[in-house]
Specification:
Elements (H helix, E strand, L loop, with lengths): L4 H21 L3 H15 L3 H17 L3 H20 L22 H7 L5
């Protein structure tokens, strides 16, 4: 039996957040951001996890004293509920302040494969 989309998303988000914590513990900021971005891609359709991801990004940006990123995350925390209400979710968007909050982006190949394995 295949997983539902929500169950799969929760599992993938948990895996990416574990990768984020491990990268952070080893001071690998690039890998930490990558894991947060991947968790963001998966969490977008689910408001609670999506907001939690942006809170994590905000916390990491503050920890790094990256004030531009922190401000971008504050804006995204305000925009995420609007996107959920209107159904305007930019698929594949990494959630960072260095890309438009409205820009769709290609999914990483491995995530596209995993996300395609849900119960139809």
């Amino acid at each position: 039996m295949k997983e539902t989309a929500q169950t799969l998303a929760n599992r993938l988000i948990a895996q990416e957040m574990a990768a984020y914590r491990a990268a952070r513990a080893s001071s690998n900021n690039a890998a930490a951001w990558s894991a947060l971005e991947r968790a963001h891609i998966v969490s977008q359709p689910y408001l609670g996890p999506h907001l939690a991801n942006h809170r994590a990004m905000l916390g990491f940006a503050v920890e790094l004293r990256d004030w531009r990123e922190a401000m971008g995350q504050l804006v995204r925390l305000a925009l995420a509920p609007l996107g959920a209400l209107t159904g305007r979710i930019p698929i594949g968007n990494t959630g960072r302040s260095n890309v438009s909050a409205l820009k769709s982006m290609p999914l990483p190949d491995d995530l596209a494969l995993k996300l395609g394995e849900v119960e139809k």
